[in-house]
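User: Just a sanity check before I run the rest of the batch. Below are the structure tokens for the first item. I only need the designed sequence back.
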């Protein structure tokens, strides 16, 4: 449908078309920007505000003795849950006569901005829970089927800027996971951009002699460490967060970040690290309020995330 080329009231353009254009830009940008949406399965939460996942204990093997009835061994079960109780909204309001009514670019750019901000918020919530998971003890009463989180703290104030020390701390976590029979090639290593640049100065990571086809120093790119993909992102929190939008008394402010947790410079996580659910998928709306005489342009979602398996959560903290 051809868009109007002259100034007109916003109602001259069907609202359904505006929602489609704006919502399409929001969805496309969110899908493009979100790291966690591609990595962690987000389950629908319907008819309740809480998603429950069962943890299965380790099975005990028994050797058969001829003529002796084998005893059964009970496999213990545990549970983890996540509650969805907050709607997160991106809202813009526009006057009755505004460029939003006729300018496709305005709708597209606003949609992109809303999609990017929603993706940043979404990813950071997941990374916060992965950081917290690295400090959790092994779940009790599961016969050792799930281990504790993995945490490495560097010993001096500038150690995180040393490519060898940072690399060794990351690999110690990966090796600790491998010792627990975890396939670390399914994990991702997430670092802030500054740490990505530090790792590029590690000779073994950029040398074809040690790590063929893993990186290109001139382009500032590195693919993996010990087979685990390396992802650079500024969404790892580097400052304390109080009053996070998803935090409340019901979840004991689970999404707030302490000063100690804000020292994370690398996060290692697996698709099974976290339990995530959503009641409202990312949704877009455009509507006119007759009382306020203005248009509202919204994108909103309701989701939650908690730890599922601490043994596949790892973090490297600066001193």
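Assistant: Here's the designed sequence for the first item:
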């Amino acid at each position: 449908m051809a868009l109007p080329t002259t100034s007109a009231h916003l109602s001259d353009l069907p609202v359904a078309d505006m929602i489609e254009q704006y919502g399409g830009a929001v969805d496309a940008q969110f899908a493009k920007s979100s790291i966690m949406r591609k990595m962690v399965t987000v389950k629908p939460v319907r008819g309740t505000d809480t998603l429950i996942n069962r943890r299965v204990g380790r099975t005990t093997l028994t050797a058969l003795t001829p003529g002796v009835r084998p005893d059964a061994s009970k496999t213990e079960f545990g549970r983890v849950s996540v509650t969805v109780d907050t709607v997160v909204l991106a809202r813009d309001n526009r006057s009755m006569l505004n460029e939003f009514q006729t300018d496709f670019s305005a709708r597209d750019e606003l949609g992109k901005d809303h999609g990017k901000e929603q993706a940043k918020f979404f990813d950071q919530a997941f990374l916060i829970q992965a950081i917290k998971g690295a400090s959790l003890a092994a779940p009790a009463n599961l016969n050792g089927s799930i281990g504790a989180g993995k945490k490495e703290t560097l010993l001096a104030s500038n150690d995180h800027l040393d490519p060898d020390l940072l690399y060794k701390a990351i690999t110690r976590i990966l090796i600790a996971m491998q010792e627990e029979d975890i396939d670390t090639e399914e994990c991702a290593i997430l670092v802030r951009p500054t740490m990505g640049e530090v790792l590029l100065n590690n000779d073994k990571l950029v040398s074809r002699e040690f790590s063929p086809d893993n990186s290109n120093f001139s382009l500032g790119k590195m693919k993996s460490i010990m087979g685990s993909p390396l992802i650079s992102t500024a969404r790892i929190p580097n400052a304390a967060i109080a009053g996070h939008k998803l935090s409340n008394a019901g979840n004991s402010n689970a999404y707030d970040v302490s000063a100690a947790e804000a020292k994370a410079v690398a996060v290692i996580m697996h698709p099974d690290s976290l339990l995530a659910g959503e009641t409202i998928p990312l949704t877009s709306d455009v509507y006119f309020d007759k009382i306020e005489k203005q248009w509202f342009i919204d994108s909103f979602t309701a989701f939650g995330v908690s730890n599922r398996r601490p043994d596949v959560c790892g973090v490297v903290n600066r001193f």
